[in-house]
Amino acid sequence: MKVGIEMLRDVARRAIARQGYEAADTEIILEIIMYAQLRGNNQNVIKLLGPGMPANPEAGQIGVAKETKLSALLDGGWNQGMVVMSRSCEIAIKKAKEHGFGIVGTRRTNSPTGAIGYYGRWIADEGLLGFVFSGSPELMAVYGSYEAFLGTNPLAIGIPTAGKPIVLDMATAAIAWYGIHLANAEGKKIPEGVAYDRDGQFTTDPGQALAGAIKAFGGFKGAALALIVEILTRPLVGATRDDDGRKTDWGNLIFAIDPELLAENLESFQAGVSDLLDRVKGLKRLPGVDEIPIPGERGDNYFDGVMAAGEIEIDEKVWRELDAVASG
Amino acid sequence: MKVGIEMLRDVARRAIARQGYEAADTEIILEIIMYAQLRGNNQNVIKLLGPGMPANPEAGQIGVAKETKLSALLDGGWNQGMVVMSRSCEIAIKKAKEHGFGIVGTRRTNSPTGAIGYYGRWIADEGLLGFVFSGSPELMAVYGSYEAFLGTNPLAIGIPTAGKPIVLDMATAAIAWYGIHLANAEGKKIPEGVAYDRDGQFTTDPGQALAGAIKAFGGFKGAALALIVEILTRPLVGATRDDDGRKTDWGNLIFAIDPELLAENLESFQAGVSDLLDRVKGLKRLPGVDEIPIPGERGDNYFDGVMAAGEIEIDEKVWRELDAVASG
Q: What is the mean pLDDT of chain B?
């Protein structure tokens, strides 16, 4: 079914507030959920259904555990991840604008962090190079193992151009955890070679995969990058484990680099990137490829289509459930 | 055949000097070539054979095109890539130690840059997180294309631990350009699905692949990372093209981050990373896996074996040719 964007936004806002968030936090979460929804990203209003993402009753203030001219380590105080990540972005951007570089780590946030391309894009929109790394619970195997140990460890990179920014937003996993869950709920199979069962056999059964582990993307190289993200979001920011070694906390890291540290100025850098993208668009294409894709572009096109229509396609069941959550 | 390490070093030194490098540059290049040789990396003395890597007669001084507290943009003055990269490392480390972050871009270097893990390891050995990105000529296709446009765009990441550093050193290509060249010289086939011929068909013929394009690793995600490396090593550092749009210059980027910006101190960070690696080593292993591999470890083990023996296995033909180059 089709729903007007403002109507969806209003219902989503009420659904978030119902989960125990105060007004300011609700607006931050709403913006990030709607970003995903309006770009065809699955970190969307579905997050508000079922168990949802209730506010942590133990949440306190967001604290600054350590700060230097270039850096801040935030103690999330078990506030919602998107709220803490937004604060991190603001600080990283401010420091990068003042000094050329800003880096912010977080720990003790209440998951989830939503579509992390949002933060990469935000930094790029400010004329900076944005790098975002996000930790998560034990879901993915390291190379050579079949035991869930790493998070799906997504990363996002935002790059300013003369037009819309480049936004790469990718899990370092071969398949999104959410994709496995969805297949499980719908009784479908998952692709071959992306997940292990608990005995280390590849499985296409999503239930078995959820009891086992996801594989990293791209062989040893992808798995190595996943391990690097684990380091950036755990020991670097002081994320903790319980006495059994299970993660009790998963951290995040954001850094922003001013391109004017190296490029003549922002405009020349943006023009240079756009020139490169123009060349990319003009390259010979493989059969069946209508246009060479640029990271972030598919979401931008989806967004443009939705905004032109003023309404968005949404599953009727999702809409009914969302409305029920919003109405309490 | 086996050759003593010091004998190999001596012959390699003379082979480098014969290519037109002055003594100080020769020592820098020697160290990086020997690093690769002693770690079983293919960026080794083979680089000195055949066309070799002659000094550029137009080389001048390495200049500083732009500098801030945190950054420097080096004009390589067509000096050898390894020499300019070493200078970059020194500057990035110095700035990161003073301010917490240091970033150095280079342009107008004379290829090659050698095993870039060398620079990542160097930075990690100084107690910093090292990130290295290296541009190269038109060899690899962007996602959706079969035209050689990107470099093989390697990246290296160095992370200090309580023991030996983690050193990830990887091309974002599905196969190293050198691997294709070697297969071509030896009349062997390359694996399926890693390279296109000039008409966009996958080929296992290395000659056809050299006339075509290499594929990026890891599907859209790997190709997207390759594109990001292209941006970091071209528009960001002002690398140039000729009137036909061909690259006449391929840049490099290094940055170093002090973990103490976020972690309590270097020692606690190193201990945290080593604890994580200990856990990784203890995970359940897939059949046939004796030990979970950590990036950089294979090279370390090779190095330890060579140093214990005091000599290294080298192809007899390579040794004879190297000796001939050294003797002029």
A: 97
